Amino acid sequence: MGDVAISIRIMPENPNVDLNKIKNEIFKRMDVKDAKIEPIAFGLKALKILIITPDKGGTEEIENQIRKINGVADVEVESATLI
Length: 83
Fold this sequence. Notes:
This protein is an alpha+beta fold. Helices cover 23% and strands 51% of the residues. It has one domain. It has 2 helices and 4 strands; from the N terminus they run E-H-E-E-H-E. It has a 4-stranded antiparallel β-sheet, covered by helices on one side. Strand 2 and strand 3 form a beta hairpin. The protein is elongated. The model has no long low-confidence stretch (mean pLDDT 94).
């Protein structure tokens, strides 16, 4: 088994949610390699993160940890690549 690079897009509940607070909370909970805030539309922005983790057979645990953070509406795995 190797490591997996997981790219995740996190959508806030509304445009007024502070994505930097969400980002800081994610950094406390897991080893994030990269994070950036990207505009979506009409003032709404998304947080995109890259996590490298050992291959455990899925991303469900990581997704659930992020969903528990206050202000998070949706978590979408954009890609998962074995490295």
